[in-house]
Amino acid sequence: MLDPDKKPDTAAPKVSFVSLGCPKALVDSERIVTRLRAEGYELSREHAGSDLVIVNTCGFLDSAKAESLAAIGSALKENGKVIVTGCMGAEPENISAAYPQVLAITGPQQYESVVDAVHKALPPMHDPFLDLVPPEGIKLTPRHYAYLKISEGCDNRCSFCIIPRLRGDLVSRPAGDVMREAEKLVTAGVKELLVISQDTSAYGVDIKYASSQWRGKDLRAKFIDLSAALGELRVWVRLHYVYPYPHVDEVIPLMAERKILPYLDIPFQHAAPDVLKRMKRPAAQEKTLERIARWREICPDLTLRSTFIVGFPGETDADFDYLLQWLEEAALDRVGCFKYEPVRGAAANDLAAAVPDDVKEDRWHRFMQAQQKISTRRLKRKVGTRQQVIIDSAGPTVSKGRSMADAPEIDGAVYVASRRPLRVGEIATVKIERADEYDLHGTAVGF
Ligand code: SF4
After folding, report:
1. CA quadruple 439, 442, 445, 447: dihedral sign
2. From the CB of residue 176, how many other CB atoms can be counted at a distance below 10 Å?
């Protein structure tokens, strides 16, 4: 019989974890960490004093690779026993050349191999008291929001991107599985689900939209069906990495009805037809400005966030001017912009002449200035309105949160003054009194 007062005889093996890269990599990290925790490993934030370090790397851009290599270097220095996984693991020779002493290298989504490598280097200790793990798994995000990964890989072949080579073709999860995970998260207190993948709008294409069971009914693995089902969970549901395919129109009414958040993260990357063609972007031929106008007619407070690349090989002055003009008309709310970086192995590098660095720099500044004015204008429209705000960090008189228009990490914040202290994860109604360049400021008027 188990003695509840019995303490483990020896300390649990301790693993320190570094998670680099995008939210998709973070979800991979959460899976690995959940599995290890379930097997009785203890997690630590400190390399020193841990028995082993796992570094989940990002290999998207050369700068990300450099950051990953630096993280491996410090883990080796501070601890000495290091296992590497993630996108950079798809090209293990780069890691072993720099750090031959790394214990094991596994690629993206190879959860089993990482765990096997950990078992080899640091066998698990079996103890029923340590094997307990919360049913929603271990989240690396704060408790009130969580990323929900609906598929792995990507069927597109954007010429600047090596992700399909690193992560393979699209593999969608059955809709029932996704919904069960979402439900567990909500039961555990998650108030906001951030739907992620490489191409959310392509969800289910690879499995021919196969149905699976959820709450005793068939649910198709289809973008619109999954969005509607998630909308039934009565939490905030935010869609990331959506491409403007025609079927995306179908989710806009769900946003207007507030079943899911009126927020779309669409990485447009450019607007000039020639550049888009060379980029081989999905849904690039769709008339996006007209679509955006129609979406806003149906859902006037729709927030659009996007990212762009300037200085793509062969981008002319005319292409860039076209982009600025498009930006003005599209009036997107939140925008990120990157200067093109020739990622090793990306087809784009050989498509046309590289844009000189000083031209890239100049275009980036002009782009950011133009968008800054648009974003500020869009944000000012909120002054005087009431917004629902989810609290991310609570302060004695002013707390920091986000409105429906702000995704964590990438968008702005709302600073909320309040008569009573607010709790993290609480959603308050806030009267917006002021806007600055990126953020809003207001007072809580309803709880
Ligand atoms: S959609 Fe394009 S940029 Fe995104 S992962 Fe797929 S190939 Fe890469």
Report:
1. positive
2. 19
Distance CA 406, CA 417 (A): 18
User: What is the identity of the amino acid at 303?
Assistant: T
Give the count of alpha carbons within 13 A of 105, CB side only: 20
Amino acid at 334: R
**Could you tell me if the CB of 200 is within 6 A of ligand 1?**
no
Q: What local confidence, expressed as pLDDT, does residue 169 receive?
A: 92
Using CA atoms, how far apart are residues 399 and 384, in angstroms rounded to an integer?
A: 19
pLDDT in tens, 57-75: 988 778 888 899 999 999 9
Report the SS3 class of residue 284: coil
What distance in angstroms lies between residue 158's CA and the mean position of ligand 1's atoms? 5
CA distance 259 to 227: 9
Residue 151 alpha carbon to ligand 1 centre in Å: 13
Q: Quickly state the pLDDT bin for 131 (edges 50, 70, 90).
A: very low
Ranges 43-47, 179-183, 366-370: which has the least confidence: 43-47
DSSP string for residues in 299-331: STT-EEEEEEEES-TT--HHHHHHHHHHHHHH-
Burial classification of residue 148, based on how many CB atoms lie within 10 Å of its CB (0-12 exposed, 13-18 middle, 19 or more buried):
buried
Q: Which residues pair with 196 in a beta bridge?
A: 149
| pTM across the whole model | 0.78
Q: What does the pLDDT look like over 256-274, one tens digit per residue?
A: 999 999 999 999 999 999 9
Cα 55 to the chain's mean position, in Å?
A: 18
**Distance between Cα 377 and ligand 1 center (Å):** 31
Euclidean distance between CA atoms 389 and 395, whole angstroms: 15
178 contact partners, CB below 8 Å, separation of at least 6 = 148, 150, 226
Mutate to test the pocket of ligand 1, among 87, 109, 151, 161 (most ligand atoms within 8 A of CB): 161
What is the mean predicted confidence (pLDDT) over 241-247? Answer: 91
DSSP single-letter state for residue 179: H
Ligand 1, closest atom to CA 199?
1
